[in-house]
Here is the input.
Amino acid sequence: MQLSELEIGDTTTICSMDKIETKFRNRLMDIGVYEGADVTVVNKMAFGKMIVIEVDDVEVCIRKSDAKRIDCK
Here is the structure.
């Protein structure tokens, strides 16, 4: 399952971020989005093209196209 498939309020654990290019993956890891992290989908914005996730009490907005590359349980 990809992060982009979750609905608002769903919580999951990130399993793999291998499909994301290294530079962007490192940026995500700097703000707490990493393999094994528990994330909650808080909101979907801009006609579903942006997804707001919460990880470690921090809200992060990512593109849906990037969320499709993040595998989770």
Remarks:
- Residues 22-30 form the longest helix (9 residues).
- Residues 3-72 form a domain with the SH3 type barrels. fold (CATH 2.30.30.90).
- The mean pLDDT is 94.
